[in-house]
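## Example record

The block below lists the input lines for one assembly entry, exactly as stored, with component labels intact.
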Amino acid sequence: MKKILSVFMAFALSVLLNPTAVWAAGEGGAESGVPLWLCIPFAGLLLCIAVMPLVKGEWWEAHQPLVVVLWILVMVIPFALLYGVGSAAETVLECTVNDYLTFIVLLFGLFCVSGNITMEGDFAGSPRINVGLLALGTLLASCIGTTGASMLMVRPVIKMNSWRRRKSHIMIFFIFMVSNMGGCLTPIGDPPLLMGFMRGVPFFWSLHLFPVLIFNMVILLFVFYHLDKRNYRRDIAEGRKPDISKPGTEFRIDGLHNIVFLVMIVAAVILSGVLPGMPAFQDAAGNARGIHIFGEVSLSYPSLIEIALILLAAFLSFKTTDKEVRVKNHFTWGAIKEVAVLFIGIFITMQPALMLLKAVGPNLGITEPYQMFWATGALSSFLDNTPTYLVFLTTAGTLGFTGGISTTLGTLPAKMLSAISCGAVFMGANTYIGNAPNFMVKSISDENGVNMPSFFGYMLWSVAVLIPVFIIDMFVFFM
Amino acid sequence: MQDNKEKYRELANRIYDLDGEVYQCVGSNLGRTFTGSRENTVRNLSVLMYTKPDGHLLRSELALISNMARTIKDKEQRSRLMEKYNQILREIEDLPDVFGKEDILDQERVALNNLVSRRQKISEGDHLVICISRTQGSAGNDIGFELADDLKINYYDVEIFDQVLKRLEAEKGAVNDKESFADFNKYGKRHTDLKTVLREFNRYHGLPKQDAVFFNMSDLICNLARTEDCIIMGRCADAILKNNHIPHVSLFISAPFAVRVQHIMAVRNMNLKQAARFLRKMDRQHRRYYEFYTGEKWGKPENYDLCINSANYGIKETIDVIRRLLDE
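Predicted structure tokens for the full assembly:
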């Protein structure tokens, strides 16, 4: 533990002691000094997300876009003053077009398609049913992505447990497992692994993480079962009971044809990872070809194809599904709107932090798998896990290992790659903003009678439940 | 005080209605905020208001309704319901804080107590329902049966319950297989094949069979208590009726272990060792069952209106004691 602490201390100290000496290299190679205070807007926005719903809930709900714009301006204006308007515009456009756009379109597509699938049935949520649902969702996440699995399963889970009073813990474990951990087995599961795949990590290599996932699933499901059983008993003791007046269970899925559109979206994601490596989509310098937007910012054709396919899937899903299904699902735009608004702010304001990370990451002296696991994980809890993964993958690639998995960034021992992958995928569950589906699940739960914890309340859960599991992971798999 | 209680009930009723209206406007089938019965929900909300008028618990419960209300697409409906919501909130804020100003009397329990209600005529329409919990070997069944005979009211114990459950199942007519809730032995270990597991999974809505039986039995006990005077033996009836706010008298009958062993030896033709082992096992199972479904301690005096050591009185005298209690 001492070593881990010293890694974090080294990182913090290097940033604090040399705020103006930290140099960040953007994608285009433009170098600029990034002072630490430019990260304040990002911290401010996170603080607003955490605190405002508690102190001024209604005001916050009504004025979220304004607050987000304010924090963006607080970041962009000083950035423009320091490095010029062009550089600021390039930075903002780069993250908006190449990161945020594909991110939100994917989320939108999955949100629309899954909203058109509804489960009709009278299964009653009990500890064993919930354990089954969480296990199923976790494994499904590697097949259709954490976002896809979350969106597909969140409503059935809410519905089955609607008779219960104590159900927020179910959604919290849902976020832990379905929205995050489950994505570790394939590049489709979580974007960082897709980035790894694009950098030469074999497609099926992530299956090596299966023992880690199973290990974590066993621990978490064991904890969940006992916690849920306790709450279930308390619900029963209060006189709550599900409606099981009919002897048999009726079960039907409406809008099942939408699975086709779900597959279409998954295919679009895979294509976005595969196409940039094909010669037809590369220019003479080997960069992905695309539509030039500003400076060195361009929207690549593979991304365009991905966006077009996802939007087409969402459109067809809406066209071919009866409106009644969405009404039954309590489909509203509230959740996706909230995520879209907050995450544009997060994506833009976190740029200085990412630049710092890119500059500082390789000099942190992190050389051991367990250090990579914690460093990648700790930063993925608050920053976008994809660039964090890339930074540490690049760092590991430069350490001069000779045996292991060959990637375009260098050769890495399997243990090192496992640690980085698990850190990025697992620890997105530490906060609501660690991974996009976390916030979606929270918003949908909030709208459907589940009293979800606040930002800090959720973090208490992750500190109490997840961190001990990660510590065990470190000793078992990454030491 | 009575005025305040009326006000709490009225507000709680309005909250329940508002929740239903919001859910209906949304058109969802994912479940409304307050999924319990009106009676239970209103009672629970009233208690929240009564004990913590400005507490965060009540507010967070109400916030769930407003979360859902804000998603209503029809603007007029939304603003109408939000106005109702805000009005309720304002009225709750104006409620006086009465917490801690009461004496030892638990008003909730008093309202459920048949003994008091029979004297004070709180609710004349209620039936005389006596729930008897007992330890094995304390002659609780004999006492219950003879008391029912004395009072000329119906007596429900485990066998009769099983029969009633069986009949209910038969009346439903939807299930033709031989297995019914009644054949379930909550204490027995069972070996089932996959086919049976899947059939039960479907039959009991994914719930453990034991829980499904309990939920159905709860319905049955409530129906009985609402429709007739009766004595209900065991089955957590006291806790079920308390949760469903149905007035009743709850009794716990026990006797010293040594006396119970003697009684079991005589009644069941067992030797000392067998009788002692049998009693320990039954006590353990009763305790587990009761504590699992009620969250309360089995046999804890605070949970009952009256606890009796039947060994101190004998069957006849115990019945007399209970009758005197009821008649006075």
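Chain A is about 65% helix and 5% strand. Residues 195 and 294 of chain A are 24 Å apart (CA to CA).
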